[in-house]
Amino acid sequence: QVQLVESGGGSVQAGGSLSLSCVASGYSVGTFSTYSLGWFRQAPGKEREGVATIGSDDNPNRAGSVWGRFTISENSAKNILYLQMNSLKPDDTGMYYCALEIIPRRQWRGCSIATIRPDYWGQGTQVTVSS
């Protein structure tokens, strides 16, 4: 059973920093599969949006709204996904979700916010940024 468990959310003032983590368990990719990981967020009354992704090729992709402020990284040996968030703004407030896609290697075209199609989601961790 695949599980994604996020942590690290909280309340900060604008300009502050938070570091999110997501521990993934219960999955494996064999010779013929690969994976993509991502962070998404959803603000009250808004649709869920992609924040950042990273594929098994370790190539990160970020949304323009977080460029230069957020960094996605992965410890593949420990199956942990990170999101370092600096210079936080009130617009960054929302529930942040970790996501995993497992894809056949023959279909792999790299990973980006536009192409990731998550198969699994975490329960989310709340981030609140006050002005």
Describe it.
This protein has 131 residues and is mainly β. It has no helices and eleven strands. Strands 2, 4, 5, 6, 9, 10 and 11 form a seven-stranded mixed beta sheet that branches. A hairpin with a 6-residue loop joins strand 4 and strand 5. The N and C termini lie far apart (40 Å). 31% of the residues are buried. The model has no long low-confidence stretch (mean pLDDT 95).
Summary tags:
mainly beta, 0% helix, four-stranded antiparallel sheet, seven-stranded mixed sheet, 131 residues
Question: How is the biggest beta sheet arranged?
Answer: 7 strands, mixed
Distance between the termini: 40 Å
What is the approximate shape?
globular
Strand content: over 45%
Give me the oligomer status: single chain
Which spans of ≥5 residues are poorly predicted at pLDDT below 50?
none
Counting DSSP H or I runs of 4 or more residues, the number of helices is 0
Helix content: under 10%
Average residue-wise pLDDT: 95
Radius of gyration in whole Å, from Cα?
14 Å
The helix/strand order is EEEEEEEEEEE
The count of DSSP E runs of length 2 or more, i.e. the number of strands, is: 11
Which secondary-structure class do the elements indicate?
mainly beta
